[in-house]
Amino acid sequence: MAGATVLHGSADHAGRFESKAATREPALVKWTILAVSLAFFAVFLLLPLVAVFVEAFRKGWDTYAAALVEPDAVAAIKLTLTAALISVPLNLVFGVAAAWAITKFEFRGKHLLITFIDLPFSVSPVVAGLIYVLVFGAQGWFGPWLSEHDVKIVFAVPGIVLATVFVTFPFVARELIPLMEAQGREEEEAAVVLGARGWQTFWHVTLPNVKWGLLYGVILCNARAMGEFGAVSVVSGHIRGLTNTMPLHVEILYNEYQFAAAFAVASVLALLALVTLVIKAWVERRAGGAGHD
């Protein structure tokens, strides 16, 4: 027995040594990889971000503030927030429902539903915008009927909301599905056996287990909603003060050589992105801490 124990301990020691040896690299290799990573980060991420704020404040605070309180800029900010405030809750409800159905039940068309959820990842946002124009535009399938009833979708706020909903469609569901699959159905089944109803099971069992993943998906969804350009550009019509979101307003200002104003509005988007990153990091930390408890 003692000999077997010694052999077993020697095998464990050898295994640990091999594992360390397999991941051990010369110092030159490690520092080269680190230098390349930091250089990539500095050139492609940090430098453009710094440039946005430098250009935004190049002509002083007064010019910066004037660009943000200008009526078209205020309208663009309001429209961006409106589109996000509508599309994120809609995708939240759909994402939770779809993830719950896919992971907790077996039904026909399950794989088809998963494919549809992934569709916005594989379709260009510009193509998505064109689809809405073809369906709801003046010459589209429902265009004549909409014109008769004085209903405006394309080149109006509803079209922007629809395009935003489409591009943000997968984020919540795709964050929850693998998480719910990993957790299995045992806890929900036990709750049902103990007499809990569907809503009680979801509220007291399912939701607490996925709350951090749900919040993470909402953060990603909101970030994409505020920064979307392609699909919104196609359906907006670029009507200043009415259908321009912040990204579209930045493009128009830049094309008109109003660089200070363009970078000022872009800096607001950058600040929103930074806030999103901070919240995302906090959620990841809390989720990691919850996983270790």
The number of strands is: 0
Topology as a string of helices (H) and strands (E):
HHHHHHHHHHHHHH
**Alpha carbon gap, first and last residue:** 37 Å
Number of helices: 14
Which bin fits the share of residues in helices?
Answer: over 70%
**Structural class by sheet pairing and helices:** mainly alpha
**Rg from Cα:** 25 Å
Which spans have pLDDT < 50 for at least 5 consecutive residues?
Answer: 2-11
Mean pLDDT: 84
Q: Specify the biggest β-sheet.
A: none
Globally, the shape reads globular
Our estimate of the beta-strand percent is: under 5%
Please give a handful of descriptors for the protein shown:
14 helices; mainly alpha; 293 residues; 0% strand; disordered N terminus; single chain
